[in-house]
């Protein structure tokens, strides 16, 4: 068995070696690829844990994809200007230029800025003098001789001069974003959409966005747009829509990090540049959430657990952030608000240190937010809304309307919805103790539901 294991390892090694030879041969025919990686983490007032790790991961990935990579850490404003100027001026004609930034970012008065590590937020008026304007980077890349320019920002775009908020994301304070005007032949990818926050990667070595992006970049045959769409779908699902990646593109030709076999690649000639002149960018506006429409039955318990955790210690001062997310089609935020208004917000603990004191319950607001999520097709909200209507909580009791919401929820893979709808259809009220007959009926329902979920 040991011989077979060693022989298998030898075969595997040869296979990877052949892949490496093939990629090296392919890379020889690619346009020159150059990347600048900037990582700011050692902020005086708001340090970040993962930009250094993210920079190293991105650098390793880009080198595997044929990029010549330069990497710099913890830059002040002058260093940001100098590094980006030097990089853009050295881009060869027809090359691919890529800049990756991990760190803090803000938006003030309609403009986006990258935050130097030594910047002290003293007021909005000082930001243009203390921060690095994103437009400066875009303008320099536009003036370069490169054919395609890619800017990747794993940073939130926030304004640190407004009331602060507590969270685990890459921000100083509240949310904000200005749309960026980009020239032709340019892609700008953001780790978070307008009005959202980018997670720093609490409990992980890398931010979720950078980790997911590097995985997609290594997939053969994906255009950059396809890779970024995949990243958005994965990040949205894993963060339950708290973070929604976004990108803008004005590319005319297709660009691949790892081209499929047989694809004619861009040449080194400047004449192939898709960047001459300027054009309005094609904005990749956020589409409504869809990750939950095909969620397998076995994954719903984790979603329920997340909702319970979010609701358990939710206080009223966190409502504005949740409402902001809810207004951006975040069904988890809508449902969390619905539960919180129904059960009340955390206000402290009793004398024994265990009992939770709640207040601020409002059944009318609970029904409103659950209805918003239910209309978006979220089955947990549909189920809860249906039960509230059947029981006359926050609204007049209406069996027809309540059962309609339960039925709609049962069409999903959410097991609880299938079970409760079947119970209600069989005349069993899930909210009251079951009789012996009801227990037998429920057991049969559970068996039927389990069978359907296996089909």
Automatic annotation (TrEMBL):
Belongs to the peptidase C14A family. InterPro entries: Caspase-like_dom_sf, Caspase-related_regulators, Pept_C14_caspase, Pept_C14_p20, Pept_C14A, Sel1-like, TPR-like_helical_dom_sf. GO terms for biological process: proteolysis. The lineage of its organism: Bacteria, Pseudomonadati, Pseudomonadota, Gammaproteobacteria, Methylococcales. Coiled coil: none annotated. It comes from Methylotuvimicrobium buryatense (Methylomicrobium buryatense). Residues 31-160 form the Caspase family p20 domain. This is Caspase family p20 domain-containing protein. Gene3D superfamilies: 3.40.50.1460, Tetratricopeptide repeat domain (1.25.40.10).
């Amino acid at each position: 068995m040991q011989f077979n294991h060693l022989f298998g390892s030898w075969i595997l090694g040869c296979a990877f070696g052949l892949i490496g030879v093939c990629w090296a041969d392919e890379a020889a025919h690619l346009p020159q690829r150059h990347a600048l990686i900037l990582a700011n983490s050692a902020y005086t007032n708001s340090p970040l844990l993962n930009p250094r790790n993210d920079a190293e991961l991105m650098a390793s990935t880009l080198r595997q994809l044929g990029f010549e990579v330069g990497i710099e850490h913890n830059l002040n404003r002058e260093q940001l200007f100098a590094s980006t100027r030097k990089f853009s001026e050295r881009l060869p004609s027809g090359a691919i230029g890529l800049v990756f930034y991990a760190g803090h970012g803000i938006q003030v008065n309609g403009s986006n800025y990258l935050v130097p590590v030594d910047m002290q937020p003293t007021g909005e008026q000082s930001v243009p003098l203390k921060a690095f304007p994103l437009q400066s980077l875009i303008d320099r890349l536009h003036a370069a001789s490169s054919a395609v320019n890619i800017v990747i920002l794993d940073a939130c775009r926030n304004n640190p001069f407004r009331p602060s908020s507590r969270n685990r994301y890459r921000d100083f304070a509240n949310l904000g974003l200005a749309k960026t005007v980009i020239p032709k032949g340019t892609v700008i990818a953001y780790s978070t959409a307008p009005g959202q926050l980018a997670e720093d990667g609490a409990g992980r070595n890398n931010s979720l966005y950078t980790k997911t992006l590097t995985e997609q970049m290594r997939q053969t045959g994906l255009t950059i747009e396809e890779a970024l769409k995949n990243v958005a779908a994965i990040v949205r699902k894993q963060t339950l829509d708290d973070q929604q990646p976004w990108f803008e593109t004005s590319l005319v030709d297709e660009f691949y990090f790892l081209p499929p076999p047989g694809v004619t690649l861009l040449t080194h000639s400047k004449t192939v540049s898709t960047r001459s002149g300027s054009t309005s960018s094609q904005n990749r506006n956020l589409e409504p959430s869809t990750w939950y429409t095909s969620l397998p039955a076995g994954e719903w318990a984790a979603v329920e657990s997340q909702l319970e955790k979010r609701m358990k210690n939710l206080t009223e001062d966190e409502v504005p952030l949740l409402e902001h997310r809810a207004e951006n089609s975040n069904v988890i935020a809508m449902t969390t608000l619905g539960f919180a208004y129904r059960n009340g917000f955390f206000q402290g603990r009793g004398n024994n240190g265990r009992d939770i004191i709640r207040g601020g319950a409002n059944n009318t607001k609970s029904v409103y937010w659950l209805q918003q999520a239910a209309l978006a097709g979220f089955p947990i909200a549909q189920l809860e809304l249906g039960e509230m209507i059947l029981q006359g909580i926050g609204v007049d009791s209406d069996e027809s309307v309540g059962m309609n919401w339960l039925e709609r929820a049962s069409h999903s893979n959410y097991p609880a919805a299938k079970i409760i709808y079947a119970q209600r259809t069989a005349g069993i009220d899930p909210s009251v103790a079951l009789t012996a007959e009801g227990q037998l009926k429920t057991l049969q329902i559970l068996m039927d539901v389990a069978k359907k979920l296996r089909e």
